[in-house]
Amino acid sequence: MKKLIVAIMTCFFMVFSLFGCQTLNEKDSKENKTDVVNNESSVNEGQKDQADKADQPDSSSKQQTTDTDSNTNTNHDASDASDSDSDSGSKQKTQTQKKTSRLYYYDVEKEKMFYVDKTVELVDGAYINALTNALKNNQKNEDFVAVNDETFVTSAKLDEEKGILNVYFNDSFDLSTDLDSKIEPKFIESLVNTYGYNYNVEKVALFVNKEPYKNPSDTTSSGYFKVSVDDATEYVKKG
Question: Where is the signal peptide (predicted)?
Answer without folding.
Answer: 1-20
